Amino acid sequence: MQDVLKEAGLSAGAVYRYFPGKEDIIAAITEETFATIRGAFEEAGRPSPPPTPDVLLSRILARVLGERLYGLERRTFAALAVQLWSETLRDARLAAQLDEGYATLRGVRAELVEAYRRAGILSEGVVADHVARTMFATAQGFIVQEALFGDVRPDVPENGLRGLMSMGPQKAS
């Protein structure tokens, strides 16, 4: 808490007026972070038809990592997200908050998948939740890469996913 107080330039009394403890600060940061990520997915999926997953994830990562949430540099923000995820492993309240945010994001992504179906660019046989979870995992993976290596550019997931999506079925040998 002393580090938080020093960085914020506030006294303990000022911070504890709004947050009873460290966990409450983390919960507030988690809530705001999810709101940013959810907003990025909602915004990226508004066009009709929505952009394909390669373009969509590129736009989302550009927005989330370029948002400068809390005034943080993108690599620092990505590291904060990874730390928040790890905090949920030891704090039941944060885990519940993460579960709720994840469910909301999966719902938003499932809506995108349905929009792909309506546009005729995704077949009916594909399970919407599977696509939603894969998109989420891909975004998380690039956030972790940014936290660890700091070299994520929006064109990387866009080009990588486009390459993966262009693969045809494997021929039997």
TrEMBL record:
<keyword id="KW-0238">DNA-binding</keyword>
<dbReference type="Pfam" id="PF00440">
    <property type="entry name" value="TetR_N"/>
</dbReference>
<dbReference type="InterPro" id="IPR001647">
    <property type="entry name" value="HTH_TetR"/>
</dbReference>
<protein>
    <submittedName>
        <fullName>TetR/AcrR family transcriptional regulator</fullName>
    </submittedName>
</protein>
<dbReference type="InterPro" id="IPR036271">
    <property type="entry name" value="Tet_transcr_reg_TetR-rel_C_sf"/>
</dbReference>
<dbReference type="InterPro" id="IPR009057">
    <property type="entry name" value="Homeodomain-like_sf"/>
</dbReference>
<feature type="domain" description="HTH tetR-type">
    <location>
        <begin position="1"/>
        <end position="37"/>
    </location>
</feature>
<dbReference type="InterPro" id="IPR050109">
    <property type="entry name" value="HTH-type_TetR-like_transc_reg"/>
</dbReference>
